[in-house]
Amino acid sequence: MLRSLLLGSSFAVLLAAAPMAASAQNSPDIAPPPLEFTHRELANGLDVYAMPDATAGTVTVTLWYDVGGKDDPQGRSGFAHLFEHILSRKTINLPYGQISTIVENAGGSRNASTGQDFTNYYETVPPQYLETMLWTHAERMARPVVDEAVFNAERDIVKEELRQRVYAPPYGRLGVFVIGDNSYDQSIYRRAVIGSIEELDSAGIEDARAFHEAYYRPSTATMIVSGNFDPAQLDRWVDQYFAGIENPERPLPVLERPVSAPRTEPRLVTAYAPNVPLPAIAAIFPGPDASSDDNAALDVMGAILSRGQSSRLYRSLVYDKQVAANAFMGSNVEEEAGVVTAQVTVAAGKTVEEAEAALNAEIARIRDEPVTAAELAEAQTELLASDLRQRETSSGRAFMLGQAIVAEHDPRAPDQAVAAIRAVTIADVQRVAQKYLDENARVSIRYLDDSQRPEGVSEDSWKNPATVPTYLSVPPALQAPNELLPEGQRQAPPAPGEARPKAAPEIAERTLSNGLRVIVARSTDLPIMNAQLVIGGGSSADPADRPGLADFTASLASQGAGGRSATEMARALEGAGANLNSGAGADSSTLAVSAPIASAAVVGDILSDVVENPDFAPAELERSRTRTVNALTVALRQPGPLASQVLTRIAYGAAPYGAPGTGTPASLRALTREEIEGFHDRWWRPDNAALIVTGGMTAEEGFAFAERTLGDWARPAGAVPTVANRAGSATAPRIVVVDLPGSGQAAVAAAVRGPNRADPSFYPLAVANAVMGGGQGGYLFQEVRAKRGLSYGAASSLGARSEAGLITAATQTKNESALEVLDLVLAQFDRVRTEAPTAAQVTDRETFAAGNFSRSIETTGGLGGVLAEAVTVGLPLDEAAAYAERVTATTPETMAAATGLLNSDQAYVVVVGDSRIFIDAMRAAHPDLMLIPAADLDLGSPTLGL
Predict the structure, then answer these.
(1) Is residue 729 part of a domain?
(2) In angstroms, what is the C-alpha Rg of the chain?
(3) What is the pLDDT of residues 771-825, one digit of tens each?
(4) Number of folded domains in the chain?
(5) Residues 921 and 886 in one domain
(6) For the segment 531-566, what is each residue's pLDDT rounded down to a tens digit?
(7) Structural domain range at position 374
(8) pLDDT at 34 (0 to 100)
(9) Is 471 inside any structural domain?
(10) Which parts of this chain are annotated as the region Disordered (predicted)?
(11) For position 94, what pLDDT does the model report?
(12) What confidence score (pLDDT) does residue 793 get?
């Protein structure tokens, strides 16, 4: 089914486009094209799906195993996920971390993920590395090395991942633990996939070896290869590397499924957690499994309730009553069960009871009253348009197919799903609402800050009283453990083959009579388009006392224009299957719209009004102000985002780049309608803008769209405004510690000032950045994660701005290791500067950086973003084609010349965390640091309020 449309997972093959249901006949005709594949099964049970695409610039190899969180052994929750980490690291022929090195040195990317029903491993690489990737998958399936070093390192890393994803974010515990534990009762899905610190600590290496022997075999695996390759050659390689792998003789472990008694009484759960800025509520109802015929109607119901700004929950809770900062409701299905969940963050100044009353009213309304024909048509269009976008890349199509296979065991399930979405009726929506939104089976959750926890109430008061099932204990491994072979005895990976040609985007440019620059890049045969309007100025044009003005202006412009209210505009866009996003970066403001080409006329009319005739209605201004302040309040209680904001301020000080682009609660509350109109009138003009159209339109179709949409945009008299000295003079380096009590992790970030994006040194610095913190082969990842297990990830980035950008290193770690990680991060700046890289190292990191860039332009939105950056910072439009060549021209000498600025003595440093745990040791090592309580921090001030 089309579960991906709400929840981020995807399903496969749409071979026929059925007619739209009668209620949706006035909607645009959106017919996602079919996914084409072939299938064969080897004698050992391995399923192989091939999805060739001669136009793709890459090939994606995915291997899905029929093992997931539900198969975690008794007392070993999180084990399938832990083993996913282990299996990515070492084999008898590959030393620790070598798989990642091979992939990155090929210019590719790799990762893996674990769900309740599956574990998958995947790489996207240039086509000439397909054989190499197949060989690495065969190594992991048949010849992995699970030793103490690998086991202990990966367990530490998984614990840091849990801290980063669950304990550090304000609502991490709510989503993973509180909602997760109460979604099911006596069910195999009761435990969180990520597990717990306690059960991870209780596991041992023999558990890992037994787990692999029990579940990892050809008969539990499905391989999907998608992209630019020769199918006949793929068959030969698959036979060569996989046909000889045998299944273990003993059968797969089988757990007798526990039977949950149906819930017949509602239950209220109150949970408390540290660092929760706004209360939250949730409602959980039992739902169907992935194969249920009800899923299409539930998808439509979820879209009507919470997809977009015209949805019922948004309009009622967020827009009209303003009792919620955000609200969502949708179904999450697994292979054997599912849940329907609503989650609401309560708006500042509103009560939990007010939010609950508003949510309950909408749940009752969709149960008790039929939805309208217009709501049904809009939801169907949104779902089909979302599916269309998911098919844009070969890797996206591979994941659609894989998810269908593991969830429904039917690669053609999406054929039926698209037809089912189109066929959903008003009566179907009400039927599933009445069937699944059963108040007698509901679990209601209140999630509050720990400061509100009454004395005597335990920290785990949220736990489900139902008994957790007893899971299998996997039998011990019978085979002798593998060991890494001596260097001279190891089999070398297959060498890359010949490069395969790929299609390049066709870029054309024209300037309209009003001065608007128009760029059209045809990049796909799919009937989709992406239009980005880039307006010079951006947040660096904000007045010093009004940070956030540019961003707020761009956001508010789409909240009513040309006689349409915000709700009417949202309804028109969403009914056309379009998404409109707006905001401001440091150097420009952007309006970006994604839509099926069939909706181009509707989208153009709305974009024209947003640009030329925004209402900036006082009521909408106040609504937007409230929503933005609520969102900012949440963001500034998360260590990573907060560290980023503070780092920018101390690096640029009082210069325009230093102010927070999204504003502060104080600056947003002070904005007036006159200031917003003034900013719009001054900066939003056609001769200060460029419209970039990417996707399936030809050049002439794109130019015609631009003329029709913005050809009448009047150019005002007078010169285009400018911003002087955006970056300012370099400020003195310093270390700032922000005390965020209750933070589940500490964020560590450091930066030095770099060149502007158009400076020729940007390209060798891109390679240096890849050396320091690019991917898993970067120094940061290796020193912080791979060698010491102190973080889930550590990386660096090279900022692209019209004036001096920042070269930034960032990571998160447990509070106890904040000082150690800080010193490791600073050491890597000096290491890149002082250790001369070899020519081979430079070449490998060039390939990595170029490969990342090439993958970024595979989508219409990604290509549009690269062209938008080129326009903003003054690069030629050939950057999309020439970036790789410019990066790969780097030599050890040019890189050494560019890296002189990477000096830890000149670094700006920010640490955000629960400082009581680490401040004494950190102050002893860095006596000049500045400590600021988060409650006293003022990002609107160049001095941070001190």
Answers:
(1) no
(2) 27
(3) 999 999 999 999 999 999 999 999 999 999 999 999 999 999 999 999 999 999 9
(4) 4
(5) yes
(6) 999 999 999 999 999 999 999 999 999 999 999 999
(7) 4-10+260-452
(8) 83
(9) no
(10) 450-470
(11) 97
(12) 94
Give yes or no: residues 270 and 238 share one domain.
no
Report the DSSP beta bridge partners of residue 796: 809
- The letter for the amino acid at 755 is P
pTM of the model: 0.92
Residue 22 in this model has a pLDDT that exceeds 80: no
732: left (phi over 0), alpha (psi -120 to 50) or beta: beta
Residues 328 and 391 in one domain: yes
Sign of CA dihedral 741, 744, 750, 751: negative
**Residue 433 sits in the same domain as residue 371:** yes
CATH number (domain holding residue 696) = 3.30.830.10
Tell me the residue ranges of DSSP E strands in 450-562: 506-511, 517-522, 528-536, 560-561
E strands, 230-365, where? Answer: 267-273, 280-287, 324-333, 338-346
- Nearest by Cα to 4 from 308, 396, 395: 396
Tell me the pLDDT band of 20, cut-offs 50, 70 and 90: very low
Element (H, E) at 607: helix 600-612
Residues 787 and 666 grouped into a single domain: no
Other beta carbons within 10 angstroms of residue 184's beta carbon come to: 24
Task: For strands 443-449 and 338-346, give the pairing.
Answer: unpaired
Axis-axis angle for helices 673-683, 618-635 (nearest 10):
90
Cβ 91 vs Cβ 100: under 8 Å: no
Residues 850 and 920 in one domain: yes
Domain limit, last residue, from 222, 246, 270 = 246
If asked whether residues 318 and 281 sit together in one domain, one would say yes
**Percent of the chain whose pLDDT exceeds 90:** 89
Query: Which structure tokens are listed for 597?
Result: 């080409």
Instruction: Give the pLDDT confidence score for residue 26 in this predicted structure.
Output: 54
Of 221, 246, 271, which marks where a domain is finished? 246
Q: Which amino acid is at 658?
A: G
Mean pLDDT calculated for residue range 864-887 = 93
The answer to whether 61 and 223 are in contact (CB under 8 A) is yes
Round to whole Å and give the CA distance between 882 and 382. 36
- Write the pLDDT tens digit of every residue in 149-182: 999 999 999 999 999 999 999 999 999 999 999 9
> So what's the pLDDT on residue 170?
94
- Kind of pairing between the strands at 689-695 and 517-522: parallel
For residue 647, being part of any structural domain is answered with: yes
> What whole-number distance in Å separates Cα of residue 738 and Cα of residue 750?
14
943 assigned to some structural domain? no
- Backbone torsion region of residue 346, taken as left when φ is above 0, otherwise alpha when ψ lies between -120 and 50, otherwise beta: beta
Query: Are 345 and 175 within 8 A, CB to CB?
Result: no
Is residue 686 located within the same domain as residue 810? no
